[in-house]
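Reviewers of the previous submission asked for a worked example of the structure-prediction workflow described in the proposal, so we include one complete record here. The input consisted solely of the amino acid sequence. No template or homolog information was supplied to the procedure at any stage.
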Amino acid sequence: MTTLSSGFARARRWLRDHPLAFDATLAFCTLVVMICSSFTDPGDGHGPPAFGARTPELFSVLLMTLTAAALVLRRRRPMQVLAVTAALAAVEYVLMDPPAPVVMSTVIALYTVASRTDRPTTWRVGLLTMGGLTAAAMVFGSTPWYSQENFGVFAWTGLASAAGDAVRSRRAFVDAIRERAERAERTREEEARRRVAEERLRIARDLHDVVAHHIALVNVQAGVAAHVMDKRPDQAKEALAHVRDASRSALNELRVTVGLLRQQGDPEAPTEPAPGLAVLGELVATFRNAGLPVEVACADRDRLPAAVDLAAYRVIQEALTNVRKHAGAGARAEVSVVRVGATAEVTVLDNGRGSAGRRPGTGPGGGTGPDGGGPGGGPGEGDGQAGGGHGLVGMRERVTALGGALTAGPRYGGGFRVHAILPVEARTGEPDRPGTAGGTGLRR
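From that input alone, the workflow returned the following structure tokens.
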């Protein structure tokens, strides 16, 4: 049984791949059925049909052969094949009595037209074919107009139209489902690519923040150590200790960030929570050790969403890094984090005059300022901030991704100001992390 079913499946696939061969086979089978039916006398309806009770005329055999041969082209020329078979069937009804079943070819041709055109065309062509052949059978046949053979012509042609229209509708429905499935698949792939791009951008921002902050501190402390190495070795050792601490912190944060990129089966990444305002004191201490006086004014210890907590920490980190790099000697910084209604406002101020290499620049962050790209630096594109001009861009991307706003520009009277407004309800929908959101360091 399995061998038989597999043989049928192979035959169906072959015929589907060779439609002309399928139509030729169908035409031959139709011709055989028509010829066999032409030898059958249906009788008067009170007994079974009698095979061999009549013999078809040679002209009828010719018409059956012509209509069957026309079916070979039914896919390529459906309307022309229907016209030829209907005309030959009408000729059979007019000239022969009793007529041979030439109309069987017309039924197949009408089904083909209905399955390959639209519904209005099927209605028009179907009604014309049904009416014309039924009228020819009623008017020119020897049987009464109300005989079952005449109404059989009407029924068979109508059934062919309905069946063809149903097949066309089902085929259109299946095609629509397949198209929606393919479109959904494309949409899923595009969504996956978009999520990958967003994750890549987020990791790039984290890497920039980590590297820019810690490398700037390492650079400053290394310079101090080199300057005082000969005259004040104790201070040089202290500076080198700060270098060691900053580099260790950089390595730890890099390990956490790169751990996100590990594949399944790789060693587990560190499970430490991402930094937040809970460790703001440690961040400020690193800048104070590097020689930058920083004052912190916070309000309200209410919980912040994890995404907002991380964004606030990164904004402060990048802003203080730019103050240390570009504000010049003797600069001081002030950091404040307050809750205002449904938002958290982060502000970083400095009174620095800037180094000689700083130049004005304008950007969407607000105002005109030096090229530092952060506090003490202008928000212009292509500024001189750490990371090749990505500091302010990264801060703005973090803030706007949460639905907030960031402004940066020079202060009246000197210095620079970075101000970020973050909604407490983050758009990312990320759940709060007890490790970071629970201790933001906010006080009202």
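The beta strands are 40-41, 50-51, 294-298, 333-340, 343-350, 361-362, 368-369, 405-410, 416-423. We consider this example representative of the routine output the project will generate in years two and three.
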